[in-house]
Amino acid sequence: MVDMESSDKLLWFIAGASIGATLAVLFAPQSGKETREYLAEQARRGRDAVGEASHEAFATGRDLFEKGRALADEAASEVIDRSRRIFES
After folding, report:
1. Do residues 9 and 49 lie in contact, with contact meaning Cβ atoms separated by under 8 Å?
2. What is the number of alpha carbons within 13 Å of residue 73 lying toward its C-beta?
3. What confidence score (pLDDT) does residue 4 get?
4. 3-class secondary structure for 11-43?
5. Dihedral (C-alpha) 75, 76, 78, 83: value to the nearest 10 degrees?
6. DSSP 3-state assignment of 62?
7. 9 φ, ψ (degrees, to nearest 5)
8. Domain edges within the chain
9. Is-contact 10 50, C-beta < 8 A?
10. Residue 3, by phi and psi: left (phi above 0), alpha (psi -120 to 50) or beta?
11. What is the pLDDT of residues 14-60, one digit of tens each?
């Protein structure tokens, strides 16, 4: 289940990756090509993390929807059964 704590962790991960990439560009004694490769790798990691979190959120939403549907069906059945009993009395 994706909750606020997971969302906060993802936000901090993305912020950390961005800060790390910025510092790498400013202070790394790498060539432009190496720096671009590093930034591309960091962007890929961030994209993967966001993708994973969105899949988890989707799965959680689907599970909650199914639970809600089951509860609504159960409640509707109970109301129908009560109505029948009252009508038949």
Report:
1. no
2. 6
3. 60
4. HHHHHHHHHHHHHHHHHCCCCHHHHHHHHHHHH
5. 140
6. helix
7. -65, -40
8. 4-88
9. yes
10. beta
11. 888 888 777 777 776 777 788 788 778 888 888 888 888 888 888 88
Residue 56: both structure tokens together? 């988890």
How confident is the model over 67-80, as pLDDT tens digits? 999 999 999 998 88
* Eight-state DSSP code of residue 73: H
Angle at 28 between CA 25 and CA 29, to 5 degrees: 125
pTM of the complete model beyond 0.85? no
Contacts of residue 17, defined as CB under 8 A and 6 or more positions apart, other chains included, come to 42, 45, 46
What is the amino acid identity at position 84?
R
Burial of 76 (0-12, 13-18, 19+ CB in 10 A): exposed
The structure tokens listed for 81 are 């059964």
